[in-house]
Design a protein that fits this description.
mainly alpha, Arc Repressor Mutant, subunit A
C-alpha cells in the first residue's frame, strides 16, 4: 500500500506520540511535586517539609521524587527561585516614576496585587524572606532600598538612612501581603498600607496618600 509523502506510517507515528505523552506525564508529575512542596513549605515552614510528605501529598511513588530532584534542598531552592523571579517581575512591571516615593508606591502595590492573585506565592515569600540563604529578601529590597536612600537624600523622607528603614518597609509589606492573601481586608487596604509605609518613612501624609492612590 502506498503511503502519501505527507502521511507518517503508524510504526513511526506511535513512537512520536508515545514520547510526547511521556514528556507531558513527566511535566505533570514534576508540577505535582512542586505544588506539594510549595503547600507544605507555606503551611509548615521550610525545615518541616520532608520528601516523604511531598510524595504523599503529590500522590506519587516514594522513589519518583529522585527522578526529578536530586535532594529535598534542590526542590526547596527551586521554589525559592520561583518566588524571587516573581518578585523581580513585579518590580519590572512598574512604570518608572520620576520621584522615589512614587516608584516605591508602584512596586509595593504590584506586590500586594500579586499576593491577592496568588495567595500561595505570598505565603511562600513570607517563609523565604526571613532566611538569608535564599535570595528572596535581596530581590524584595532591590530598587526599594535605593528609593529609600534617594528619598532621604532628596528630603522626601525624614527617616534615618540606616538598615532600620528597609526593615520597616519589608516588615510591613510582607505582613500586608499575608493579610491580602488571606482575603480578610477591604478594597482600600493596598492603598492605605502603601500610604502608611510612606508616612512611616517620613513622607508628608497628603503626599503619601496621593502617591499610594496612583496604584499601578
Amino acid at each position: 500500500m502506498h503511503i502519501p509523502d505527507n502521511v507518517t506510517p503508524l510504526d513511526q507515528a506511535r513512537p512520536d506520540a508515545d514520547k510526547a505523552w511521556n514528556e507531558k506525564k513527566k511535566e505533570r508529575t514534576r508540577a505535582q511535586l512542586l505544588e506539594a512542596a510549595a503547600r507544605l513549605v507555606a503551611d509548615r515552614g521550610i525545615d518541616a517539609a520532608t520528601v516523604n510528605d511531598i510524595v504523599t501529598l503529590a500522590n506519587v511513588a516514594p522513589g519518583t521524587f529522585y527522578n526529578y530532584f536530586p535532594s529535598l534542598e534542590a526542590i526547596i531552592e527551586e521554589l525559592a527561585l520561583g518566588v524571587r523571579e516573581q518578585v523581580e517581575a513585579n518590580a519590572r512591571s512598574r512604570q518608572r516614576a520620576r520621584d522615589p516615593g512614587s516608584r516605591m508606591a508602584q512596586v509595593m502595590r504590584a506586590h500586594l496585587a500579586r499576593a491577592r492573585d496568588d495567595a500561595l506565592w505570598a505565603r511562600l515569600l513570607a517563609q523565604f524572606v526571613v532566611r538569608a540563604e535564599y535570595p528572596v529578601r535581596v530581590a524584595l529590597l532591590a530598587g526599594l532600598e535605593d528609593d529609600i536612600i534617594d528619598g532621604i537624600g532628596k528630603g522626601q523622607f525624614t527617616a534615618e538612612a540606616d538598615e532600620s528603614a528597609p526593615d520597616l518597609v519589608i516588615g510591613a509589606l510582607v505582613a500586608g501581603m499575608l493579610r491580602v492573601a488571606d482575603g480578610h481586608v477591604g478594597r482600600d487596604y493596598d492603598r492605605n498600607l502603601t500610604a502608611n509605609i510612606l508616612r512611616g518613612l517620613g513622607m508628608v501624609s497628603a503626599a503619601a496618600l496621593e502617591r499610594a492612590q496612583r496604584g499601578l
